[in-house]
Amino acid sequence: MTQHNEPITYAGAGVDVEAGDKAVELMKASVKQAQRPEVLGGLGGFAGLFDASALARMEHPILATSTDGVGTKVAIAQALDTHDTIGFDLVGMVADDIVVCGAEPLYMTDYIATGKVVPERIAAIVKGIAAACRQANVALIGGETAEHPGLLAADEYDVAGAATGVVDKADLILPESVREGDVVLGLAASGLHSNGYSLVRKVYASAGWGYDKHVEEFGRALGEELLEPTRVYAADLLRLIRTDGVDIHALSHVTGGGLAANVARVLPKGMGARIERSTWTPPAVFDVTQRVGNVPQDDIERTLNMGVGFVAVLPAEQAATAIEVCAELDLPAWRMGEIARTENLDAAEAEIISGAKGVDAGACQIVGSYA
Q: 78 and 71 in contact (C-beta within 8 Å)?
């Protein structure tokens, strides 16, 4: 048996426990701001505690849960050494999925894996997560930072999160509520959000564009545009859902798979959305990305959100009220289409998308040209 002459320590193997402890100390102030009255205990316990006694006042509480990451957008954050915005992407991807069924997200935990714990970098990531949680009225009640030397480079990391929410069964938003003649509203995205970055990064790398390149159409550097944080919709959508005179029949979070696929999956079988491109103009980043990469339209629309972060389906007579509520929340919204029976959608006019994400649900087609 060969014995190593020098003692091998955990620190020598690349794991710095003291750096991890310092990171926790640096993030405490941020986490403290992302709380709700129901949170029990402080940071550092083996489990986050949340007082769920309020659920007893619901007639039939249903828990909703979601977990996600932010994909390869973290590569851009690492390249630019900017880490305090990626948290908005994480909270948006997780908490906003929960609102789709009408649930209120209550609490969230995060997980950060990195090749080397740099306390200031970890604290910056958590600062963004906490700020986004505060915006969504979600408590950040725990998390984990893992140091993986040899698996990840010293400056590499990935983030993931999970959240839990609740809704009374009577208030669940289910596909069965959707009716023929309902209106489809588009809710504006803040930019690319957190999907399709493998395509986006490939486009600009192939063109030789550095992240410091000033792009006239953006009015800022490419990297700044690509790091634009995901809009967090949770609190605003709950306001809309709870507005008198607004009966939301369906909500769709436009994430991986693009607009049509994500709308189709929240509609009942036999119903389809007909969406008109002429009702909005996608932000410049979508047009520039498509032109620089010569990306086919069907491919870019199946990959990116095209400027639509969320979709709401509701009765036609309530559309104007919903748009007014969104305007008060500084959330641009517009009427972009309507619901019809799938059999009445004209396949000769545009492709009809259905069966996305393995869901046997409704359908969606997008017609015309962008404004």
A: no
